[in-house]
Amino acid sequence: MDILRQSYAYGKSPLTATSRSKPYHAFLFGASISKSLSPLLHGILFKSANAVWSYEKVQTTDRSAFEGILAANDTIGSSITMPNKVTFGSSLDHLTEEARIIGAVNTSFVRTAPDGRRVHIGTNTDCVGIREAILQRYPTAPSTSKGKPAMVVGGGGAARSAIYALWKWFGSSEIYISNRLDSEVEDIVQYFRQAIPGIQLRHLDSVDRVKQLPAPYIIIGTVPDYPPTEPGEILCAAICDAVLRKPQKGLLMDMCYMPSPQTKLLRTAANKGWETVPGTDVLVRVCVAQQTLWVEEMPNEAGIKQALAAMSEKTKAQVAKL
């Protein structure tokens, strides 16, 4: 995988022939992570790689706590989630291109500098998860989507990762953005026009505007699956519905998977003839990318299939409780 090859630009491997039998640790840092499914998935993937490593949740927004845990010699890497994706980046030694351009870090990994120091590298594997989740289901998507508009629903960190993925790997001619808050869209547009000169972004702010524009080929949803109640949410939902009703169809990914991966947006898209990709696929592929950087080997297909199956069973159980 390209991310592994690129990771060695920051230093050599810290692993040895016996590293997988040693008690290394990876951690998840975030504010509300009690229901995170990442420990389940990483446990499966570590086991499939014959690594006796652990993956532990640390519910904190304290950067000093993060720095202290990373300083331990048995820490092999970390996952970083909200609200730490921006603030924790400055504690790392280097940031990859993805992390710098997106402006957020969700993963750190360790490499060894020429002087023998352990260095911690921050990257963004959310965008890689988006790419891989689409490619696994629709391998021809990069060529089919090239030169066509795309669309992102939302204005947070996941939306920024989606914009980067659409620009970097899917050749989108223009990216529409629809969101409940105009101010968030304005911030994103201003940020990316500086980070990626020449990128074409358009605020999709009315149903009438939808009628005037060609349909996007790829749509990526990044907002929670709650019924719209506020005016901005209601308008955003109406814009999405208008886009999905257009005669030209493509594929829609919804990164939301709680409480069910079959979100309203995903169901609506499928009913209107769109191909779909659930958010559970994205989470698994994000974990696969993280494992690749930590274990320094792409997880085997048996482990990935087991992780996908476990994710499916877990979300079914959660839905049954509702």
Calculate the mean pLDDT score and round it: 95
Overall 3D shape = globular
Number of domains: 2
Low confidence ranges: none
CATH class of the largest domain: Alpha Beta
Content of β-strand? 15-25%
Oligomeric state of the chains in view? single chain
Main beta sheet: strand number and arrangement? 6 strands, mixed
Which superfamily, in CATH terms, is the homologous superfamily of the largest domain? Answer: Leucine Dehydrogenase, chain A, domain 1
Helix fraction bin: 40-55%
Query: What is the CATH fold-level name of the largest domain?
Result: Rossmann fold
Strand order within the widest beta sheet: 2-1-3-5-6-4
Number of helices: 13
Overall SS class: alpha/beta
Radius of gyration: 20 Å
Number of strands: 12
Q: What is the CA–CA distance across the termini?
A: 39 Å
CATH architecture group name of the largest domain: 3-Layer(aba) Sandwich
**N-to-C series of helices and strands:** HEHEHEEHEEHHEHEHEHEHEHEHH
InterPro entries: Aminoacid_DH-like_N_sf, NAD(P)-bd_dom_sf, Shikimate_DH-bd_N, Shikimate_DH_fam
Domain Shikimate dehydrogenase substrate binding N-terminal: 28-107
Pfam family, one: Shikimate_dh_N
Protein name: Shikimate dehydrogenase substrate binding N-terminal domain-containing protein
